[in-house]
Specification:
heterodimer; A: alpha/beta; FAD/NAD(P)-binding domain; Immunoglobulin-like; seven-stranded mixed beta sheet; 29 strands; 21% helix; B: alpha+beta; CPE0013-like fold; three-stranded antiparallel beta sheet; binds flavin-adenine dinucleotide; binds iron/sulfur cluster
């Protein structure tokens, strides 16, 4: 049995920033538990540039962004256990792990930070019909094969899903000599960044079929053919709109799911809107001393926000430990709700009396709009409004409600887009 | 007329650029004018990829050009990148190919391995 003040589960950008920030706030005995052979998480396979514009004012690649944090570990006493898989976490913060040197072992910690990231959805949950031959990969899995392991996954490719990972992989496969025949997207718009539409598809003349989905997959041993069809406004395929593509590879980029098996087993309440833990303004979950940050909490598009959120979790975990791990006083906590046009908020709850300068709320909108107003209500009273020139579901939004506007608030705080239904 | 999507901000205005006069329409702000002109005259991209490496913890080493290169040179650079092979150890920032394809940009490693 090992004992630590703080155990961080996951050594991606979230775990790294959280551990460093807890250390800088006075906690010495910290361990990062990472199942992979190296730190950095998903960033190691994201070799494209576009990371760190907000934080460092330059465009770094994934590995370069991760390295900036990994370098800072050298000057600390933080313990890193690589090749260490966490199997179980309990609400009293006992962690069961397995690795090659220790075998099966336990760690007891005063506080735990959940930073396990997310995994990709595969064909099961989206109900894709057809044969089950080889040649069908999730986009991130193909990304790892190509960028880290050095295996090319195929030569004629169809991609389902036009989120950023699908777009990035369309370019990557093309540069490596494959022919990307089509990117199909079931929604009438792409959730990917415009920059990726331009630089990953338009630059290479790759067609994007909006309101289309895969309706047939042919090929018993290896994929031979994919059929896509246009869908109506209820996402039902329209007969007669089929397009056939002879191909050996189908990449699925159909969404990410926070990896919360450990959290669930520990009894940490999960928010069905985010698939991540319910957290307070200090990033603490409903379970005392367990904090969460990064993609395990809600899916982020920008790693810069992951780092900032995780530093907050690390700082508050440090405070919790320094205060003798006393259960946090949550009396009078407000519930933060999503109103019209907003799909979720993080945090979901807040103790307003401890808010220092302002209350930061992250959220996503349901649809694109221009010249909008984000309205914040306490019960039925409008307490703040924020103007935005442009809103889109693909971009996480953030507002900071100044402390003085929160005076006297209790009950619920609702964030909505003015005018949206 | 050439058409582009402006990528400077999330709004993504659809720009039209007149090749002769370089007049830009469809933009909602001044930044779109500069973007549209650059895209029409000389579009530049940072190229990122991987090369083979021996003796490292992985089989591929990530690389990038240290500055943007003309878009038209991307495939010429990829041919050179496909021929590259390094031996571990390599340091992040180490130059793999100088002045790749005459673009004035160096190809550099983006991690230690
Ligand atoms: C393909 C792709 C492209 C992206 N492109 C961009 C971009 O261009 N710009 C940008 O800013 N952002 C981008 N992002 C987003 C950004 O990379 C992520 O938001 C960020 O990496 C999330 O960090 P994280 O630490 O929460 O998760 P991760 O990076 O996923 O790290 C989680 C870590 O936890 C470990 N772990 C999980 N479970 C366990 C366990 N039980 N025991 C031990 N260890 C465990 C995992 O091995 C992993 O290392 C991209 C993401 C993806 C997937
Ligand atoms: S023209 Fe201006 S408003 Fe439109 S996308 Fe470009 S930067 Fe944004």
């Amino acid at each position: 049995m090992f004992e630590y003040d703080l155990a961080v589960i996951g050594g991606g950008p979230a775990g790294l920033a959280a551990a460093l920030s807890a250390y800088e706030n006075g906690i010495q005995k910290i361990v990062i538990l990472e199942r992979d052979v190296e730190l950095g998480g998903i960033l190691n396979q994201c070799i494209h540039n576009g990371f760190g514009l907000h934080r460092f004012g330059e465009e770094l690649t994934g590995p370069e962004y991760a390295q900036r944090f990994i370098d800072r570990l050298k000057d600390t006493a933080i313990t890193v256990m690589l090749g260490t898989m966490v199997l179980e976490l309990t609400s009293d913060k006992t962690i069961t792990c397995v690795n090659k040197t220790e075998g099966l072992f336990t760690i007891s910690a005063k506080a735990v930070i959940l930073a396990m990231g997310c995994r990709e959805r595969n064909r099961g949950p989206i109900g894709m019909p057809g044969d089950r031959g080889s040649g069908i990969f999730s986009a991130g899995c193909a990304q790892r094969y190509i960028n880290i392991d050095g295996y090319m996954v195929g030569s004629r490719v169809v991609i389902l899903g036009s989120g950023d990972i699908g777009l990035i992989m369309a370019r990557r496969m093309t540069l490596e000599g494959a022919k990307v025949l089509a990117v199909a997207e079931i929604m009438p718009h792409s959730n990917g960044l415009n920059r990726n539409i331009v630089q990953c598809l338009n630059d290479f003349g790759i067609p994007l079929y909006l309101s289309h989905t895969v309706t047939e997959v042919v090929g018993r041993s290896r994929l031979e053919k994919v059929v896509i069809s246009q869908v109506d406004s209820n996402f039902k395929p329209i007969p007669g709109t089929e397009k056939e593509f002879e191909c050996d590879t189908l990449l699925l980029s159909v969404g990410l799911i926070p990896e919360n098996e450990l959290s669930r087993k520990a009894g940490v309440p999960i928010d069905p809107r985010t698939n991540g833990a319910v957290v307070y303004d200090d990033m603490q979950t409903e379970t005392d001393g367990i904090f969460a940050c990064g993609n395990v909490l809600h899916v982020h598009d920008l790693v810069d926000f992951v780092s900032a959120e995780s530093e907050k979790a690390g700082r508050n975990a440090a405070e919790y430990i320094k205060n003798g791990c006393k259960p946090t006083d949550k009396t009078g906590a407000v519930v933060i709700q999503n109103g019209n046009g907003v799909s979720y908020t993080v945090p979901q709850k807040a103790v307003l009396s401890r808010v220092e300068k302002g209350l930061e709320i992250f959220f996503r909108v349901r649809q694109k709009s221009e010249k909008s107003v984000i309205e914040v209500k306490n019960n039925d009273r409008v307490i703040a409004a924020f103007k935005r020139d442009f809103l889109a579901p693909g971009e996480m939004e953030k507002i900071t409600i100044p402390k003085k506007l929160l005076e006297g608030c209790e009950g619920t705080i609702t964030v909505s887009v003015g005018g949206a239904k | 007329m050439k058409e582009f999507i402006c990528t400077v901000c999330p709004r993504g205005c659809h720009l039209k650029v007149d090749e002769n006069t370089l007049a830009v329409t469809g933009n909602s702000c001044a930044r779109g004018v500069e973007y549209g002109r650059n895209e029409a005259v000389n579009p530049m991209r940072t190229l990122t990829s991987t090369i083979a490496i021996e003796g490292g913890i992985h089989r591929r080493l990530p690389v990038r050009t240290d500055r943007p290169i003309p878009k038209s040179k991307i495939f010429e650079c990829m041919e050179i990148i496909h021929q590259c092979k390094e031996k571990s150890p390599v340091k992040a920032g180490q130059v793999i190919v100088e002045n790749i394809a005459g673009t004035g940009a160096n190809l550099i490693a983006t991690r230690n391995m």
